[in-house]
């Protein structure tokens, strides 16, 4: 218990041998692939550089602070020395930064290359699947033609059958249909009110005379008649 | 400016808190409150460390049974005795929040248990699509990947424990290194 933390184990190397604090023995760990190993080593190297970089930064800051202190204490030479050391550290830091950048770039390139491989593998698999699923266009053409033929044949048969069933009745049916239509039309006609056959009034003049006529008629006859003259049948 | 005291802090103001209770039910409650008190204190410490020194400098949280200040309350003139301290320490270990460094004397304290970390890390991996590539533990606690996330600054040994939990759940593969904990590799599935 406490493989990683226990004081007795001391060195961090215990992690590799002791199989960690959970205690449980991991049955068999799959071996790291070559690619993973390469990437891991690359990252470890980059991490080491990162640590070195941070250390240099800290030391540089120490010298800056020291220089400031020396100036305050009026020890100009000491201050100058501190600044020179700081300058030296800065140059070292720049080199480390460049190397770090290179390693970081390499890590990214390797990861991107791995992704590219995966993408291409994916495309290959997709391509293969697509090819297997796709139908042959010639086959499809044949099938469509066959289907069309069959449909035509079926229609022919239907026509023949329907001919045999109603050869003469067809004419009779049509005649009967016409008769019914005519009867309906006549019925409708009877229901319609009669349109007056009087000439349509031209604007102005005859209206007066008509009105006069109306008045005369009103006095002599019943009210319904003149109303019917005036009224035009409304056909819906 | 003072925040309202937590429940554990409230109980720490009473003398009885510093005497290990005989009654089982009461003792259970008492020890649990002690656990909360310790974890709250360490959580506060860690936050302060992170704020002032940044992620690199934070060391592991160690509880020394002899010298942990909250075990003693000068105002009340009371201190938790050795049996009580041991009970608190054992409880921390049993609940996954602690691990003996020097058995009986000093204890590593985990504010978050390894299993909690395992979930946090796995969720982070899922959300950011980190599966399928290999990473180092150093990258996880100090890399750009985890800047300004809760994972930044995690203690490497604690991180590895969390990763091993994920391994047992078949969510990750851990490749230990012979050189240092930071160089342990991990690939998430």
Overview in brief:
The complex is a heterodimer of chains A (236) and B (189). Chain A is mainly alpha-helical and 236 residues long.
Topology:
The complex is a heterodimer of chains A (236) and B (189).
Chain A: H1 14-18, H2 34-72, H3 76-133, H4 137-165, H5 169-191, H6 205-220, H7 224-230
Helix pairs in contact in A: 2-3
Chain B: H1 7-11, H2 24-53, E1 62-64, E2 72-73, E3 78-79, H3 82-94, E4 98-102, E5 106-109, H4 114-128, E6 134-136, H5 137-142, H6 156-168, E7 172-175, E8 185-188
Antiparallel strand pairs in B: 1-5, 2-3, 4-5, 6-8, 7-8
Helix pairs in contact in B: 2-3, 4-6
- Relevant CATH superfamily of the largest domain in chain B: "Winged helix" DNA-binding domain. Chain C. Domain 1
Separation of the first and last Cα atoms of chain B:
47 Å
Strand content of chain A: under 5%
Poorly predicted runs of chain B: none
Morphology of chain A: elongated
CATH class of the largest domain in chain B: Mainly Alpha
- State the total count of DSSP E strands of chain B: 8
What count of helical segments of chain B does DSSP give?
Answer: 6
Q: Write down the CATH topology of the largest domain in chain B.
A: Arc Repressor Mutant, subunit A
> Roughly what is the average pLDDT of chain A, rounded to an integer?
78
Strand order of the largest sheet of chain B: 1-5-4
What is the percentage of strand-forming residues of chain B?
5-15%
Global mean pLDDT of chain B: 87
Task: Domain count of chain B, please report it.
Answer: 2
Family (chain A): Belongs to the SNF7 family.
Protein name (chain A): Charged multivesicular body protein 6
Subcellular location (chain A): Endosome membrane
Biased composition (Basic and acidic residues) (chain A): 1-10
């Amino acid at each position: 218990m406490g493989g990683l933390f226990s004081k007795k184990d001391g060195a961090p190397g215990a992690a590799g041998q002791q199989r960690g604090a959970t205690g449980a023995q991991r049955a068999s760990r799959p071996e790291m692939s070559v690619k993973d190993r390469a990437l891991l080593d690359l990252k470890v190297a980059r991490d080491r550089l990162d640590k070195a970089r941070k250390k240099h930064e800290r030391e540089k800051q120490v010298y800056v602070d020291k220089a400031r202190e020396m100036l305050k204490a009026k020890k100009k030479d000491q201050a100058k020395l501190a600044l020179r050391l700081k300058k030296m550290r800065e140059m070292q830091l720049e080199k480390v930064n460049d190397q770090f950048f290179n390693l970081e770039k390499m890590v990214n390139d390797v990861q991107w290359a791995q992704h590219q491989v995966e993408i291409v593998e994916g495309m290959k698999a997709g391509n293969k699947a697509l090819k297997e699923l796709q139908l042959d266009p010639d086959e499809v053409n044949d099938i469509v033609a066959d289907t069309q033929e069959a449909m035509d044949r079926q229609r022919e048969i239907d026509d023949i059958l329907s001919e045999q069933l109603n050869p003469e009745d067809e004419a009779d049916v049509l005649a009967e249909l016409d008769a019914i239509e005519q009867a309906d039309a006549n019925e409708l006609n009877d229901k319609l009110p009669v349109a007056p056959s009087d000439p349509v009034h031209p604007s102005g003049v005859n209206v007066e005379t008509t009105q006069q006529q109306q008045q005369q008629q009103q006095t002599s006859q019943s009210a319904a008649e003149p109303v019917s003259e005036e009224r035009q049948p409304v056909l819906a | 400016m003072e925040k309202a005291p937590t429940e554990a802090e409230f109980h720490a103001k009473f003398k009885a808190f510093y005497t290990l209770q005989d009654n089982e039910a009461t003792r259970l409650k008492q020890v649990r409150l002690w656990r909360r008190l310790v974890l709250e204190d360490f959580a506060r410490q860690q936050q302060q460390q992170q704020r002032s020194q940044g992620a690199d400098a934070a060391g592991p949280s160690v509880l020394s049974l002899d010298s942990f200040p909250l075990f003693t309350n000068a105002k009340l003139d009371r201190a938790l005795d050795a049996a009580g301290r041991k009970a608190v320490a054992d409880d921390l270990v049993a609940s996954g929040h602690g691990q003996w460094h020097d058995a009986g004397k000093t204890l590593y304290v985990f504010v978050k248990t390894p299993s909690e970390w395992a979930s946090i890390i796995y969720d982070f991996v899922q959300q950011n699509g980190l599966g399928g590539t290999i990473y180092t533990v150093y990258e996880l606690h100090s890399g750009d990947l985890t800047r300004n996330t809760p994972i930044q600054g995690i203690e490497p040994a604690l991180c590895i424990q969390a990763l091993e939990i994920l391994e047992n759940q078949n969510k990750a593969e851990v490749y230990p290194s012979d050189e240092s904990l930071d160089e342990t590799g991990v690939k998430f599935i």
